[in-house]
Write a structure and sequence with these properties.
- The protein is of the alpha/beta class.
- The chain contains three helices and eight strands; from the N terminus they run βαβαβββαβββ.
- The chain has helices at residues 20-30, 44-50, 105-114; strands spanning 12-16, 34-42, 56-64, 67-78, 97-101, 124-125, 138-144, 150-156.
- The strands form two sheets. Strands 1-4-3-2 form a four-stranded mixed beta sheet, sandwiched between helices. Strands 5-8-7-6 form a four-stranded mixed beta sheet, with no helix packed on it.
- A hairpin with a 5-residue loop joins strand 7 (138-144) and strand 8 (150-156).
- The longest helix has 11 residues, at 20-30.
- The mean pLDDT is 91.
């Protein structure tokens, strides 16, 4: 008997946002992603998928310059949801952050700070004995997007 088929890859990651234009500005203008698709989602089919009634939402897909997976920025107009403060803590169970690989941390951090982005702290080098990455020594820093989603900038040398 053959094993079941393996997952071929990650298609996309979903981030529910309060303001789609604000999030597009953040991900595209500040972080360098590009918008590849935008549409409205409504009707029974989407309600059956997400388990909610009367869904009406806008969605935009963005892609980093290095390629996929796409990030799906989803704005629910109906029904609306409320943020849960403890979800923005790094130790809360569940999906906690998305790591974005960059060539150089310092210039991007400077640009983000100029736009009012606050970082959890200064960049930290991962000790070589803690985790060995084939890509080299890793330096990283955390911050959040406009909706409190934790993002990591990481640089390998």
């Amino acid at each position: 008997m053959n094993p079941p088929p393996a997952v071929a890859g990650i298609d996309h990651l979903n981030i529910v946002v309060r303001d789609l234009d604000r999030s597009l500005d953040f991900y595209c203008r500040l972080l360098g992603f590009r918008e590849v698709l935008r549409t409205t989602l409504e009707g029974d089919w989407i309600g059956r998928i997400v388990g909610l009634e009367g869904v009406r939402a806008e969605v935009a897909f963005v892609v980093a310059p290095g390629g996929e997976p796409r990030i799906e920025l989803l704005r629910y107009h109906h029904p609306g949801g409320e943020p849960v403060a403890r979800n923005s803590q790094p130790n809360t169970p569940g999906l906690r952050h998305i790591a974005l690989r960059v060539a150089e941390l310092a210039p991007l951090m400077e640009r983000l700070r100029a736009e009012g982005v606050a970082f959890f702290g200064e960049p930290v080098k991962v000790p070589g004995g803690a985790v060995h990455h084939e890509a080299g020594e890793k330096e990283l820093v955390y911050f959040t997007d406009p909706d409190g989603v934790i993002l990591e900038l990481c640089q390998y040398r």
